[in-house]
Amino acid sequence: MPTYVFICLDCGKKFEQFFSYAEYGVKKAVCSYCGSENNRRKMTKVRVKRGPSEKIADLSDPSLLDRVDEDPKLLGKMMREMGNDMESDLPAEYGEVIDRLEAGQSPDEITSAMEGGTESASDDAVG
Does the structure show a pLDDT above 70 at 125? Predict the structure, then answer.
């Protein structure tokens, strides 16, 4: 049975009431605090599941892409979301790259480390 949320117009309190589909609109909601039938239904938030194509479209927002260049953690978050939405198996390196990005490593540092170079680009400047 669905739960509906109401606001009592007499006492001002919010309350929930269960109605079957057949009862809704026929049976009056009664405030569980003061017993009044003088109320209105409160519209609750609705969650809509979006498919991968809508999420990818959101990720192509130019303002977001500009920030990705400057923020490896944001890039890692985007890559994780895209990977979660993909139905194919991703290589193990994909997860490692995401972990490194989310830890704050730049793409250049990750490339260098994964190609067998130094652990970070700053080590080159020191050595």
Answer: no
Q: Please choose, from the candidates 63, 76, 57, the residue with its C-alpha nearest in 3D space to the C-alpha of residue 84.
A: 76
At residue 123, does pLDDT exceed 50? no
Written as six digits, the tokens of 96 are 């490692």
Q: At residue 53, does pLDDT exceed 50?
A: yes
Question: Could you tell me if 13 and 29 are in contact, meaning their C-beta atoms sit under 8 angstroms apart?
Answer: no
Kindly report the CATH number that applies to the domain delimited by 3-41.
2.30.30
Residue closest to 38 by CA, chosen among 70, 15, 21:
15
Residue 42 to residue 29: CA distance in whole angstroms: 12
Closest CA to 74 of 54, 103, 95: 103
The enclosing H or E element of 12 equals: none
From-to residues of CATH 2.30.30 in the chain = 3-41
Cα–Cα dist 29/78, whole Å: 45
